[in-house]
Each structure stands twice: as C-alpha cells, then as structure tokens.
Design a protein that fits this description.
The chain is α/β, with parallel strands linked by helices. Helices cover 43% and strands 13% of the residues. β4 and β5 form a beta hairpin. The C terminus is likely disordered.
Length: 166
C-alpha cells in the first residue's frame, strides 16, 4: 500500500505542499510542534490508515455530511487517503457478507486500524436496544475495539460506560 507522501507525489504536489498538510494534520490533532518530524516520517513511510467504521444509534448524518462534501471529494479520501475496510452504508456487500467483511478486516488488521463509531452506544440492558446481525452494540464495540490502544480502559465500554479509542 502506498504512503500518503507517495500519493502526494503521484498527484503532482510539491514537498512543501506535503509538509504543509503534515503541519495542518498535527495541528488538527492537537500535537506538539516538536512531534512534527515524527508525523512527517510516519506519513512518508507508513501505508494508508485502515478504517473500520461502525454505525450504532445514529441517523447516518456524519456519513451523509461526508459523502456530500465538496471541499474534498469523498472519492479522493476513500481511494487515496484511507483504506475503508468496513462501513455498512458505503460498502457493496450487505447482511452476512458485510459482517464477514468486517470480521476479516478486524482479523487481518488486528491492532492496526482506526475504529470510528458513529452514533451513540446504548449500554442499558447490555445494549439490546441497538443490535446489528443479532449482536448488541456493546458486544460489537467490545469485539471491534479489543485490540486497540485505549486512552481509557476498554472495560469502561464493555462494563457499561464509554471509552475513547486513541
């Protein structure tokens, strides 16, 4: 898989454009300016980030806003900047095949994917009020985030609270 730097070069952007983007990304993430060299290095050598995007109790408004964006085309983001491995609204497979795709992506990229959760997690009664493929959102969230590094321990989510993946 190509790194972001290689994608920039292929699209005709200059080194200065790339460095400006790295700076903007660092700023948006609230990182110290002392970390900029590490961010640049990571963007130069690491492959595109793998994303698994779950939808729980939501109206799909985040997805709708994203796919209707005109400041940056969603096709550019999805084809050049991210490797979106699972998103039930944006992917072709449905039902069993979509769930199988998610399972395979989580297994293949174990501990190396960005988990996006759109919507709220309803932990009451172990999450039975929001189920997909016969699994509660609490069970799905715990299974999907099991191998991620957490700012808060995953037991807070799996125990009925909330946690934020870093």
């Amino acid at each position: 898989m190509e790194s972001l730097y290689h994608i920039y070069k292929r699209r005709g952007y200059t080194r200065r454009d790339f460095l400006t983007s790295a700076l903007l990304l660092s700023t948006a993430l609230g990182l110290s300016s002392s970390l900029l060299p590490k961010v640049v290095k990571a963007l130069e050598v690491k492959p595109k980030p793998v994303v698994i995007w779950l939808e729980f109790q939501d109206c799909a408004g985040c997805t709708e806003s994203f796919i209707r964006s005109t400041s940056i085309l969603p096709t550019d983001v999805l084809l050049d900047y991210l490797s979106l491995e699972y998103h039930k609204t944006l992917m072709s497979p449905s039902g069993f095949y979509a769930e199988e795709s998610k399972r395979e992506a989580m297994e293949k990229h174990k501990g190396k994917y960005v988990l996006v959760v759109e919507g709220s997690v309803s932990p009451k009664d172990k999450g039975v009020y929001c189920t997909v493929a016969g699994k509660s959102n609490v069970d799905t969230g715990c299974a999907s985030s099991h191998h991620l590094w957490w700012k808060e321990p995953p037991s807070q989510l799996c125990g009925g609270g909330y946690a934020i993946a870093h």
